[in-house]
Design goal:
binds pyridoxal-5'-phosphate, seven-stranded mixed sheet, alpha/beta, four-stranded antiparallel sheet, 13 strands, 15% strand, single chain
């Protein structure tokens, strides 16, 4: 018997359940011997890597022997220009997931509580648990954030509130007035992270969806997070950013590992900021695919939660069973923890969506 290291782990880590990622395509190939596989499980961009980014990445392969620019100067400069903020307000992360953790490690101890919503992004609970902080999980309203209840949950030990807008896995969203009213009521000593991972999809043709960056001056405790993983199609490279007042960014910078974002990610992200054509196509393919799926759900009498993201949660009855059956047909979707009737399906290309719908109709219903 080897030493029982489990007993050495912190009590918080002993109670931690590891994050369950969407099933990788290669894993399904190995397990079931299926060749024709479609993955609609991790809200990835179905367009594949942008050709422009490919060229940039290839041109910078020789940089890999060097450490990346630890300050991400060029990318921050482009982001600052695009969003009309100071570079000092930007923190880059190894995906926005790293930034979510970074902000918690910067402000939260075991004495503090973190507020997040039921049915919100599972990483919020995971981070809270890993730190051994107190969970204030607020019951959802219509599958989304109940901001009034979240505001009421604030107490003297609360340091952080995580809000996903739109929310993953439900796709629900909070409108401008509601979010602004909430921000006005939160004490300045409580940091509000608005996680806008799906901003580029949600903001199109939707004037009621807030661009939280406009409130940075009004609310010094606001931190807005976005990512290159979704509409920009760089999930595998891992790069996201937080925008906040400089005093918060400076604190995050103390805790941040020196070379947290790799050089290819920096180059590719910077290239993508200028790749309007790719972004337009991402958004267009998402709108068409969302229409395709939700029209079929209506025809099949399947209830779904209206979504502003690149995914939709649909009520299929016993979701775990349907998930398993779909796997056998080569379709990877995502069951949702604590929502046993719902499958989350990422929007794919038309043919991928068709493959999912056919499997759903022919083999399952
Ligand atoms: C996908 C997603 C992220 C992005 O994660 P990265 O680490 O940037 O890939 C962040 N928040 C939510 C709610 C998400 O769904």
């Amino acid at each position: 018997m080897s030493y029982d290291f489990f007993q050495l782990a912190t009590p918080a880590v002993q109670a931690l359940q590891p994050y369950q990622p969407g099933k990788p395509i290669e894993e399904l190939k190995r397990e079931y011997g299926i060749k024709n596989i479609v993955k609609l499980a991790s809200n990835e961009n179905p367009l594949g890597l942008s050709e422009r980014a490919k060229v940039f990445i290839q041109a910078h392969l020789q940089d890999l022997t060097r450490y990346p620019d630890g300050n991400g100067f060029a990318l921050k400069k482009s982001l600052a220009q695009k969003y009309q903020v100071e570079t000092e307000m930007i923190t880059l992360g190894n995906g926005s997931n790293e930034l979510l953790e970074l902000i918690a490690r910067t402000f939260v101890t075991t004495e503090n509580s973190i507020i997040y919503s039921q049915y919100s992004f599972p990483v919020y609970a995971l981070i809270t648990q890993a730190l051994g902080a107190k969970h204030l999980q607020v019951p959802a309203k219509n599958w989304g954030h109940d901001l009034i209840a979240m505001q009421q949950a604030i107490n003297s030990d609360t340091r952080l509130i995580f809000i996903a807008n739109p929310n993953n896995p439900t796709g629900t969203w909070i409108d401008k007035l509601e979010l602004q009213t909430f921000l006005k009521q939160v004490p300045e000593s409580v940091i509000v992270v608005v996680d806008e991972a799906y901003f580029e999809y949600a903001s199109v043709e939707n004037p009621a969806y807030p661009d939280s960056l406009q409130w940075l001056k009004d609310f010094p405790n606001l931190v807005v997070m976005r990512t290159f993983s979704k509409a920009y199609g760089l999930a595998g490279l891992r790069v996201g950013y937080a925008i906040s007042q400089p005093n918060i960014a400076h604190l995050l910078n103390r805790v941040r590992q020196p070379f947290n974002v790799n050089s290819l990610a920096l180059v590719a992200a910077n290239c993508m900021l200028a790749d309007n054509d790719y972004l337009k196509r991402s958004i267009a393919i998402n709108q068409v695919g969302m229409q395709q799926l939700t029209t079929a759900f209506k025809r099949l009498n399947l209830a779904f939660i209206p979504s502003l993201g690149n995914f939709v949660a649909v009520n299929v009855g016993n979701a775990m069973e349907v998930y398993e059956k779909l796997l056998r047909c080569g379709v990877i979707t995502r069951p949702i923890a604590n929502m046993p009737n719902y499958l989350r399906v990422s929007i794919g290309l038309e043919a991928e969506n068709d493959m999912f719908l056919e499997a759903l109709q022919n083999y399952i219903l």
